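BUG: 3D viewer hangs when loading the predicted structure for this chain

Environment: internal workstation, default settings.
Expected: structure renders.
Actual: progress bar stalls at 90%.

Input used:
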Amino acid sequence: MKILIAGGKGFVGRHIASALRAVGHDCVITARKPGPDSSIPVIRMDYEHDHDTAFWAQHLAGFDAVINAAGILVERSDAHFNAVHHLGPCALFQACEQAGIPRVIQISAIGADEDAVTPYHKTKKLADDYLRSLDIPWIILQPSLIFGHDGASTKMFRRLAGLPVVPVPGRGEQMMQPVHVDDLAALVLRLLDEPGVSQETIAVVGPRALSYREYIEVLRHGMGKGKPLVINQPMAIMNAMAELVQHIPGSTLTPDTLSMLQRGSTGDVTRFSELLGRMPRDPDVFITLSLIHI
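Structure tokens produced before the viewer hung:
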């Protein structure tokens, strides 16, 4: 198949592209700055500005599938949620309908639903809802926390877990259901081979939910460390800190990311495991294996 991956240079997009190419698919990615690596054809595109359906009309001929894996966790001066998560993807989806693309896969997020309160989740939901309104074969994947040795959140949690004293927000009871990025990529491969699976929203989650504190403990175990000495940070202090450090370039702690952490990101693993043909790997397994190879 010839497959377009929007956001193919990002963490999730890279892993999907690698999995697809490993089994012989022909991939093209989009990127704001293509860079020197010419091993994969690149369409120069920036969702911040390229949210016109006509832009895509010139690029979609010949593709068998389109995957949107573009996303940002925190807004920047050159990347805003409404453009990157909503306007850009909707233009792409509309162009896919016009071009008759046989399969469109949207990488969204758990929390992009009726109870969404943050701009991150709200704009993801806008794109999801627009895709659902189109008469094309679409699939929306909504992951929980994605683990991968090269992922920004994985690196952050690993640094925290390695501290001699670990601060946790509140009592550390925020729930998540970590899933390995390779299991997400494996699901995408399965979906490309299953034309009968269409117009579904699928939770992409690990086999069990963990609290923030439990996740830190699993990380430390994988690193060969014992249980951490934990300091509970009152949420009032965490909120004040988020208000302060959100203005530091590169900071991932903002009032919105803290709000999303508090809300949690868990789901039903049943459909994911059915399509995958197995249960996704447990954090105890993939964390240990991943950290061994770092």
